[in-house]
Backbone:
């Protein structure tokens, strides 16, 4: 039996009732307490509750230490000693930590005051960076410094920004574009323009020079993504 | 006290060291040990509730050593006991408890925790029929029906109220009831200070008493 398992005898400072229940009240104080106990029903009731609680605790402890007690008796009697678990008070203390995870947990607990604000700040910065790139990179292409939105097809070197007439028939516009093999790849942008690309220079030239363009398009701006500059018609 | 004398009721009682040895090596012995030990603890809780758990266990282990190893000739039994396993077990049970009680009384006296008017084991049995029934029933305590109901209700309420405490508060309070000092409880529960232990104990006690009184229908 180690010292740490044995209850200490010093009752100084202990709650008087608990000290009485656990038999740690010195003689004179005990007599005085019992004199009060004889006249105070409520105090007697409280002591009875605590004694009953101590009974329950003892019963639990008797059961939890039964194997250890038998092992001790078996050793005395020269009988085979069964393996036993430690007594209850020792189980209350957590097992010694030796794994890297346990050490990390200890370090984390001891530095939580510094690490947690730092991680929150890092998270905020990362969120800002992610949002910044999402607004620029996703489905966007920069051509000559101009950011445009795509509609699912690749950019071509033969394209225009077309501003449709306010009352234009969209079906007629689409039919006209398709006649030259063009496709609407982007838009409308903030100015209401549609980006239309053509498969080759001939189709592009035919499109912009067609007389129908005056009826359907208010303005056609040529883009020169392959090295040239915009040219307005 | 080192020499215990078992006084048999019948004149033809004789020492039975071989019977004791056979019994201690029998398959029945582990269960007997558990029952007999529990009986002893119950009797101690009833008459020496202020005893420390470790002192009680030491007294019990002393009795095992004394009865089976150190002084096996001290225990005496009659031919009837030898012929009836139940009678034999009861005789061993009583003898072990007597030796353990005497050892515990010595310890309590040495540490200043004993009372001058603490009755002997035999006097305790003579004055209190409950004890005799306790030993005859092999750990089955047989108090009055009224007492059983009262204790049953109180224990039920206590168990419910104890289960409402947090694990840490319950462990701390249990250790306090077991007689451990605040300093030891601080180490066992990894509390920061002894003041924290005292606060936990005080809160647990107040909560427990209040809860039990409420369950008993008493105004708090």
Residues:
């Amino acid at each position: 039996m180690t010292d740490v398992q044995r209850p200490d005898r010093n009752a100084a400072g202990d709650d008087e009732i608990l000290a009485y229940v656990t038999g740690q009240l010195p003689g004179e104080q005990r007599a005085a307490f019992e004199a009060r106990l004889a006249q105070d029903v409520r105090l007697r009731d409280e002591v009875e509750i605590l004694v009953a609680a101590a009974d329950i605790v003892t019963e639990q402890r008797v059961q939890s230490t039964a194997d250890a007690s038998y092992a001790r008796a078996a050793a005395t009697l020269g009988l085979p000693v069964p393996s036993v678990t430690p007594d209850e008070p020792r189980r209350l203390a957590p097992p010694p930590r030796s794994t890297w995870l346990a050490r990390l947990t200890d370090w984390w607990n001891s530095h939580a005051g510094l690490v947690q604000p730092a991680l929150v700040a890092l998270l905020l910065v990362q969120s800002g960076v992610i949002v910044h790139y999402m607004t620029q990179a996703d489905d966007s292409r920069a051509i000559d410094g101009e950011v445009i939105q795509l509609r699912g097809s690749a950019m071509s070197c033969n394209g225009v920004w077309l501003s449709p007439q306010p009352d234009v028939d969209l079906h007629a516009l689409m039919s006209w574009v398709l006649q030259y093999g063009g496709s609407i790849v982007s838009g409308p942008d903030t100015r209401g323009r549609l980006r239309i690309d053509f498969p080759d220079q001939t189709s592009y030239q035919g499109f912009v020079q067609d007389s129908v363009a005056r009826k359907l398009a208010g303005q056609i701006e040529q883009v020169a993504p392959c090295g040239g500059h915009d040219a307005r018609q | 006290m080192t020499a215990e004398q078992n006084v048999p009721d019948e004149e033809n009682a004789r020492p039975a060291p071989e019977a004791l040895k056979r019994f201690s090596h029998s398959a029945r012995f582990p269960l007997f040990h558990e029952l007999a030990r529990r009986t002893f603890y119950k009797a101690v809780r009833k008459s020496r509730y202020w005893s420390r758990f470790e002192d009680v266990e030491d007294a019990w282990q002393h009795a095992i050593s004394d009865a089976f190893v150190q002084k096996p000739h001290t225990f005496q039994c009659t031919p009837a006991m030898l012929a009836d396993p139940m009678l034999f077990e009861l005789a061993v049970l009583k003898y072990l408890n007597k030796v353990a009680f005497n050892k515990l009384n010595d310890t309590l006296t040495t540490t200043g925790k004993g009372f001058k008017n603490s009755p002997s084991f035999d006097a305790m049995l003579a004055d209190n029929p409950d004890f005799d029934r306790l030993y005859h029933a092999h750990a089955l305590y047989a108090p009055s029906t009224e007492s059983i109901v009262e204790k049953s209700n109180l224990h039920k309420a206590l168990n419910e109220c104890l289960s409402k405490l947090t694990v840490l508060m319950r462990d701390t309070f249990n250790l306090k009831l077991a007689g451990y000092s605040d300093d030891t409880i601080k180490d066992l529960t990894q509390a920061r200070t002894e003041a924290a232990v005292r606060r936990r104990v005080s809160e647990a006690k107040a909560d427990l008493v209040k809860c039990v009184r409420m369950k008993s229908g008493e105004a708090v």
About this structure: DSSP finds nine helices and seven strands in chain A. The beta strands of chain A are 140-143, 146-149, 159-164, 183-186, 194-197, 217-223, 231-232. The radius of gyration of chain A is 44 Å. Chain A touches chain B through 48 residues (CB under 8 Å).
